[in-house]
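Give me the fold.
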Amino acid sequence: EADIRPPALVVVGEVVSLRDTINWFEKRPLFRKKVLVTRTREQASELVHRLEELGAECREYATIAILPMESYAELDRELARIDRFDWLVFTSINAVKYFFARLFEQGLDARALSGVKIAVVGRTTGEVLAGYGLRADLVPQEFTGDGLAEALVREGMDGKKILIPRALKARESLPETVRAAGAEVAVVPVYRNVVPVDSDEENTGPAALRRELEEGDIDVVTFTSSSTVTNFVQMLAPADQDDLRRIMAGVTVVAIGPLTARTVEKNGLTVDVQPADYTIPKMVDSIVAHFLAEGGGEPGIPGF
């Protein structure tokens, strides 16, 4: 009669009086917070898993589709003379994955990179690189393209040959900075970052997302790159920045780092949460801290 269905837990007896003590489920810091995760479909899992463990209800919405290049002629040319480079620089995990996929397709393996130093933009990218049996020689303290550029310059770039496999469309500050420091830089696109072809059906498309935001059904929106912001706004199709602010009224906006935050602000929105360390775990910690502070709570995760 109460429509209770499995999985369900029934407690009978005096132990019921301990409900407030053992009720860890509802005491999780993000309990019932509805979080919109804007990432590629393939890369949302870690963020979603961490948020759901803390009680959040996640709505995944892909704002990016990662596709291979139509031609790898440029990369193949550089792979054929890979031993001429002093540094191989990765600015994303996708750059690592698509670079090595092509390396293997060409009949090569990690031994082809003998003598080449490798730099990565952050800890997560370094972990993906380690999956191919290689350890990064350089990881900047600040996990951004600008932080990586500054770290490379400190290594001494005069006369060095640098290979940067990256997205077809990306910021030019990194190659420009190392060129200015005297390096010879080859920038090679290894994947494309595009707006996904999404459904326009009533419950899944951009119109449904816009309706959820307008009706207050979403508490938090997370952005993990500038592209997620740009594509998210494009998919919502607001009339102007005032319309976008109206749609997003009451929604907590989370940006993983300063570059992403800058793109949020360029679109007329305010960033409410930004971690000091630009990683997914620290991003989640910052969301928790934000809502605990908002509710007057103390840091800590009851039941964990």
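The two ends are 34 Å apart (CA to CA).
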